[in-house]
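Schema walkthrough. Field components (list of strings):
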Amino acid sequence: MTTQILTQTERPAREEEREASRFLFSPWHLVLIPIAVVMLIPMVWMLVTSLETLNETRHYPPVLLPHTLVPGNYTQVLRQAPFARWFVNTMIVTVATVAGNLLFCSLAGYAFARIKFFGREVVFVLLLATLMIPFQVVMIPTFIIVKDLGLINSLNALIVPNLANAFGVFLLRQFFRTLPVELEEAARIDGASRLSVLFKIVLPLSGPVLATLAVITFLWTWNDFLWPLITIYTPNNMTLQLGLTEFQGTHQDATNLLMAANVMSLLPVLLLFFLAQKYFIRGIATSGLKG
Amino acid sequence: MARVALHNVTKVFHGGTCALDDLSLEIPDGEFLILVGPSGCGKTTALRLIAGLEKASSGTITIGDTTVNGVSPRDRDIAMVFQNYALYPHMTVYRNLGFGLRERRTPRREVDRRVREISTVLGLDDLLKRRPAQLSGGQRQRVAMGRALVREPKAFLLDEPLSNLDAKLRVQMRAELKRLHAKLGITTIYVTHDQIEAMTLADRIVVMSAGKALQIGTPQEVFSRPANLFVAGFIGSPAMNLLRGRASARGSAGTEITAGELRFARPGVPDGEVVVGIRPESLAPAPADAAGPALDLEVDLVEPLGEQALVHGTVAGTAAHSGAEEEQAILTEAASRAPVTAVFPAEGLPGPGDRVRIRVAPERIYLFSAATGESIW
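Field assembly_structure (string):
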């Protein structure tokens, strides 16, 4: 997917140049077009399979142009598993996590960027160091904490531990430091408290970076599988990713239904990705993080 | 409105830079005080300490009757205009002006009344719905002033407010500032490195260097009776001409001062090395038969200014430095010649390479101790 994005953002910003370059051939296209095709094939195949009959999915060589479209696969999936419920669960978890990250990472990022306190740099480096610890290492301790809090098998188990994360704090702190400090000083002299400065001056000027954090957090949370797997065990509390696996277990042979389920779970993410591409890329570019 | 006072204030930054060294200032209610000095002299630090944006390492700061060390900026009831104006880019002019009042929980109708009042005073009525990015430099400057004035603060702090404007606008805004202060009478502390702004605006000037106040006085005092070499070199444009000289006792005639070919008597000066200072305005072309101290000026550059012209050249003697020079001269001068600038009337100007005889009235010559830089009266 990355290659497609690059070709789009590499378009020159100025209007005339863009008009001209739209029809121009660049040698790079010889490389990029095949890569784009390779990237697209699984997506297209998934979509095609989700509309085929079961027999067509089992045919060899694969049927790439089905004789009849079967939208019924989708209704069948919705009837056989609580997809709507999983969708709502995932939405709740994702929205709450995104909101939590925006709030708490802003607060922490601002403190690290602007408030002088003893040991600030040391604490910040320690916080960054936690980014290097793989999730698998902290998984069990986190599980124990969440269990002791009595949150296991509830949506809160998915929300609470993820309300803030070091990456978000880092991203926002870096951005806040680039804002002119005089604006904040002027506001403080004007009578604003630290919190007021953050909410009335700093955050309104941080739209792009907040959008970036929101998009990245949304994708991470939406696609998270491992943590829901170990904390949720009743189907009613599952998220889409977990539900999909559950569904896969019971419908292993019905490839067309599986693919219909996949398309449905992927749709919101794809939609968000196309709407917020530029923020997504910016976040990865500024943090040097892999997507 | 209130008086502002600093008592023995010292500010040492992390890393050991001493920005303010035992500074004491007393600013009476309603005064327009200007802190002036070269960059890095501590003037902006002094302002930021009064605003509460920095904490003093020692000493006390008083606004009105309260000591404000440790009081947060919002509770000091002062207003500040920043060099880059620091207007909130996401708010309209109207909201920028009212921000301070809204933060202080002023009722909305009162905010509206005061914002409209100040926008009328500053001629911003047509701009209230615009954002800072849609304003010209001068307009932004006025909004920044308005935002400070609308709160009717106890004191008004300005940090080089005119330095981002072009020359013409600067002169215009300077006059507006002076009128505004006369009208409102708010205690004002103004930081600038431009000594013309300092001279024209101030009730009193504080000349600062290396964190110390070198002289505090009215513009006229600071100009005509500089306390030391630094103040003499800093105040006045073009800068005062400085020559090394000697004072030696000559019996009943008093002390004779010699500097290059310049000779004059000055009673009561102790023997020793001195620095002789002459303002360019005090130098004039000398008629052939003129009496009194005179110099041979070898002209190398003439800058016409309309009615007058600056005539730059060298005279016999050794140059002295005040420590207030903005830049080192690009061309190194010969050791036996000292650079001198004179203000001549525009008629009959000499050209480069000419030698002209210039004179100065002995009473308009300043003397400083070469050892300490202090003024010798």
